[in-house]
Design a protein that fits this description.
single chain; about 130 residues; alpha+beta; Beta-Lactamase; five-stranded antiparallel beta sheet; 4 helices; globular
């Protein structure tokens, strides 16, 4: 699996428009499985990315909101309701996508804020789809 994860990260990094970093996070362990960036970052910053991703997708309030949405819409499933999250900072756009085949694994793509968001979604989804299940 590790070779596949590295290949996915390399593909995301090279094919997502204006991409400056890409990574894969296993939320069941809280570990960053692979990362590739244009700049070097201290390990503690990368560890915080993994922790923040876990909070984004599985924080207590997020899980509660997912439960309410599923209940109100009559969805009976263990699958998480939120699959993709886009976050804009002052200079960057961060796209977080759950892997379809592995609900506890999230791909992260970080791009310059000038990125065409539609193209970012299209390319990131295409790369994940092309690499198939983990």
């Amino acid at each position: 699996m590790s070779e596949r994860v590295v290949r996915i990260v390399k593909s995301l990094r090279s094919e997502a428009p204006d991409c400056v970093a890409a990574g894969i996070i296993d939320m069941s362990t809280g570990m960053l499985l692979a990362v590739e960036t244009v700049d070097s970052h201290p390990p503690e910053v990368l560890d915080m990315l993994a922790a923040a991703t876990l909070d984004l997708f599985q924080g207590r309030n997020v899980v509660m909101i997912e439960g309410i949405f599923k209940e109100r819409r009559g969805v009976v499933s263990d699958r998480h309701y939120f699959q993709e999250i886009l976050v804009n900072s002052d200079n960057l756009t961060h796209l977080f996508l759950r892997m379809e085949s592995a609900d506890e694994v999230v791909a992260v793509v970080v791009c310059r804020k000038t990125v065409n968001v539609g193209m970012l979604f299209a390319q990131a989804r295409r790369v994940l789809r092309e690499h198939g299940p983990l």
